[in-house]
Design a protein that fits this description.
4 helices, 64% helix, globular, mainly alpha
Length: 120
């Protein structure tokens, strides 16, 4: 993962490359789309549908921000957006956004999800 120096010659805040982040966000969007299909089979399908739509919209916003502003600036924007969300809420939109931002931060920080083996 190549990193570049910023204008002041300091190390960037996020060491993950732009293309890696964009690829990860595309995968997150695909997962949110899959959740839209699966939510029809769940007990509270409207809740899960709204949550998946909120996550998908936020992943799309993050993707556009990375393309336009780069990874570091997007990280700062996402951090501010996360800080603006209430800690506890019953609003499904806000819960979906919080979940999507937390996944984004995990991607940025380089944490790898556990690879689960699924038997078909």
């Amino acid at each position: 993962m190549p990193t570049s120096l910023n204008v002041k010659g300091e190390e960037p805040m996020v060491a993950l490359g732009r293309e890696d982040v964009l690829r990860a966000l595309k995968r997150c969007q695909c997962l949110a789309k899959q959740d839209l299909v699966l939510c029809n089979y769940l007990k509270d399908s409207k809740y899960w549908r709204d949550c998946a739509l909120a996550r998908y919209a936020l992943y799309r916003w993050l993707y556009e921000q990375v393309q336009t502003n780069g990874v570091n600036q997007t990280y700062l924007l996402a951090s501010q957006r996360y800080a603006d969300l209430p800690l506890f809420t019953s609003n499904v939109q806000e819960r979906g956004e919080r979940e999507a931002l937390e996944v984004f931060f995990q991607v940025i920080e380089g944490e790898r999800p556990i690879r689960a083996k699924v038997k078909a």
